[in-house]
Amino acid sequence: MLCECCQHHEATIHLTQMVDGQSRELHLCEECAEESGMNVQSVMSIPEILFGMGGGGNSAKETDQVSRKSCPYCHMRDCDFRKTARLGCPRCYEAFSRELAPMLAGMHKGIRHLGKNPDYLRENLEKASRCEALRKQLEEAIQSEKFEEAASLRDLIREAENGPG
Amino acid sequence: MVLDDLIRNPAAWLSSDNLTGIVVSSRIRLARNIEGLAFPGWAGDDECARIQARVWIVLKGIQRLAPSLALDMASLTPVDREFLSERHLISQELAQKSHGSGVVIRSDEGLSVMVNEEDHLRLQALRPGLQLEALWAEINALDSELEQHVRFAFSPSLGYLTACPTNVGTGLRASAMLHVPGLRLINEIDPIIKGLTKIGLAVRGLQGEGTEAIGNMFQISNQTTLGESESVIIDRLIRIVSEVAQHEANARARLLETREAYVEDFVGRAYGVLCYANVLNSRETLDMLSALRLGCELGMITGIKVADVNRLLLYTLPGHLQKTEGRLIPPDERDHVRARLVRETVRRASI
Fold it and tell me: Taking CB atoms and an 8 Å cutoff, what residues of chain A touch B161?
């Protein structure tokens, strides 16, 4: 769509104006918007839009609560993140997890890491996934009343949890 | 080893005549951060300096980076920065930084680590041609070696934690640079770029800016980093880059079959300009060298190799030109110096 003002550049700013109780749509390019006195920078940035959508609610009260949030470790506030689109420290991912979740889901192929794990964690993670698989088998065994199998699975889980590796 | 030694070396990603072709070069970078520390953009200057000092010591002991060159951004002139950025060793963002950031480069330039760019560490591996699997093996090994000395910020559910949520997870950005003059001549670049964007890949120009394919070169890279493993991301990119390269090869074959005289004219005009021009700006040089590169690959141009053209593509950029001459050159004069440099090489060629 071309800018309504200059009819030359692509319109990237889309506004709905209320004039005399009637709504009117306006499509402008960045330059024309700026020329007409609009502060283009104040138009919501992508993280702002996404952050606004975060948490599944848009009520004024909730938005107020969100905007007061800050990371307890590095003290970055969510309004700082909205400005720069960058987080303050690794712990910000926990502090803003609720706000980040919909954003990550929107920008990536999934919401769980499926790539490399650091060596120091690999052993623990492998152990955890081994235990999880055994627990699942245990549940199935109990449900189908195979109690002997369940007993040996319980032993295996205990071994896996306490044993080396 | 000092910075000026690099100018005498051909950059790793342009040096090989056998490996470079339609796919000019490949690159992989990994974003990593140190556990418990603020990201560079949020940490103060003093903290950045402390982080850099700590990382510097670690990097000096890394076998896979030896022998290396460690450069503090504060010690670099604007031309040095431009030179390193043209060589794809530092990003535009790092080029604008000073105290508390830097880069460590292995002497062959195939492996490097930017310190305190957007993240604490940005590991980077570069090679000529399409070699993404080998690059992944190399950078993965470097990452594992680093892990023995520093603990990276990591969450089992979100993976490696990065300053920008667009990089979280694998922290991996893989890219390939393609030279596609054939697609340009048959007007098929735009639909291909649109198609690539639609399937979630990013397309950028030669120096990473915009999407305009200056010199008929563009980079294709993955945009998402979470929800897939490194090998899935890389395998898909290899498949798609190979497909685009095949399109380019088909375009060239079709052009030779149906419009050979037109292609000869396209190459010949560029050869003429490069041989006899006295004033050449960057943009025109890149476009003309692209046509000359096509001529070499199609056997229309003899006496020089694709690697020679690659070298000119790099050494005629403003930073390289001034670094080679060893002085600051105003833009107007640069166009003369550039034309002279080009003539010296291109006159060895015949058509």
Answer: 90, 93
CA distances in angstroms from A18 to A5, A21, A30, listed in the order given? 18, 6, 21
Out of B37, B161, B224, whose CB is closest to A108? B224
- Residue type at position A3: C
A100/B144 CB distance under 8 A: no
Number of CB atoms found within 10 A of residue B334's CB: 21
**3-state per-residue secondary structure call for A87-136:** CCCCCHHHHCHHHHHHHHHHHCCCCCCCCCCCHHHHHHHHHHHHHHHHHH
- Contact of A96 with chain B, judged by CB distance below 8 Å, is answered with no
pLDDT tens, B97-107? 989 999 999 98
Question: Which residue ranges make up each domain of chain A?
Answer: 1-42, 44-113, 119-162
pLDDT score of A46: 54
- List, in order, residues 6 or more apart from B246 with CB less than 8 Å away: none
Whole-angstrom distance between the N-terminal and C-terminal Cα of chain B?
40
What six digits make up the tokens of B341?
């440099």
Task: Decide if A121 and B156 are in contact by the 8 Å CB cutoff.
Answer: yes
Taking 50 as the pLDDT cut, the residues of chain B under it are: none
Chain B contact present for A74, CB below 8 A: yes
pLDDT at A57: 40
The verdict on ipTM greater than 0.90 is: no
Output the CA–CA distances (angstroms, integers) from residue B53 to B41, B45, B143, B266, B321, in the order listed: 17, 12, 19, 53, 32
Tell me which of A49, A91, A109 to substitute to probe the interface with B (most B C-beta atoms closer than 10 Å): A109
